[in-house]
Automatic annotation (TrEMBL):
Keyword terms of this UniProt record: Membrane, Transmembrane, Transmembrane helix
UniProt key word Nucleus: no
Organismal lineage: Bacteria, Pseudomonadati, Bacteroidota, Flavobacteriia, Flavobacteriales
Membrane-traversing stretches: 16-34
Name this polypeptide is given: Protein TonB
Record SUPFAM superfamilies: TolA/TonB C-terminal domain (SSF74653)
Organism: Algibacter pectinivorans
Residue ranges of every copy of the TonB C-terminal domain listed in the record: 176-236
Length: 239
């Protein structure tokens, strides 16, 4: 028995093409259905403006107050001028001319005496030309006199100073007192100043330095001058 189907007819030959066309058509219809919009047909009454119904707004009439100008200032009182009679006679100063001519007499001026004013000059003990001379140090050179004076003053202070005073003041250990004084142009000790751990020691140092004897004043360029002198006093307090 022979088949009745036409051998040239192949149904599945274009099946993929038909599938693609059908798929595209379905996607198009789906997209159209999703994006399709509908609107309700409702009449909206937006109203109508009738300008004739608006009443005219009445603007109140304001009255501007006028402030009266300030009154003019009172007239200034006239100045009272008092006439006073001149009772004091004023002497006019006549300035004479200082110009000279050939007839002017020349007055000889006497010699003017110039008085030199002596100044108090302080010259340090270490650089003075002629040091002050302590009694007993008259011999020797300037350096020997300086060394002799320092030695004599130290011996004098050690002899006269009351070292037991420090124990009475409650001090202990090593004590140092710095004393500064001047030997003036007459050889007298002046301007005594002291610095110590206790006012009692300062007072004692001033007392002892004030007992120094009269000296020959120091000289600079042949003239007496003031000579400052510094003296440290150091001692140990016995416990």
């Amino acid at each position: 028995m022979e088949p009745k189907k036409n051998p040239q007819a192949n149904v599945g030959r274009n099946s993929s093409l038909y599938f693609a066309i059908g798929l595209a058509l379905m996607l198009f219809l789906t997209n159209y259905a999703i994006n399709y919009k509908t609107y309700d047909k409702v009449e909206i009454d937006i109203g109508q403006l009738d300008l004739e119904e608006i009443e005219d707004e009445e603007i109140p009439i304001t009255e501007q107050l006028q402030t009266p100008p300030p009154p003019p200032p009172p007239p200034a009182a006239p100045e009272v001028i008092e006439i006073v009679e001149d009772e004091v006679e004023i002497e006019e100063t006549v300035i004479e001319s200082t110009e000279v001519d050939q007839e002017t007499e020349i007055v000889e001026v006497e010699e003017v005496e110039v008085v030199e004013v002596e100044e108090d000059i302080d010259v340090p003990f270490s650089v003075i030309e002629n040091v002050p001379v302590f009694p007993g140090c008259e011999k020797g050179s300037n350096t020997q006199k300086r060394d002799c004076m320092s030695k004599k003053i130290s011996q004098f202070v050690n002899k006269k100073f009351n070292t037991e005073l420090a124990s009475d003041l409650g001090l202990s250990g090593r004590q140092r007192i710095n004393v500064i004084f001047k030997i003036d142009k007459t050889g007298t000790v002046t301007g005594i100043r002291a610095r110590a751990p206790h006012p009692g020691l300062e007072k004692e140092a001033k007392r002892v330095i004030g007992l120094l004897p009269q000296m020959k004043p120091g000289k600079q360029r042949g003239k007496p001058v003031n000579v400052p002198y510094s003296l440290p006093i150091i001692f140990q307090v016995q416990d």
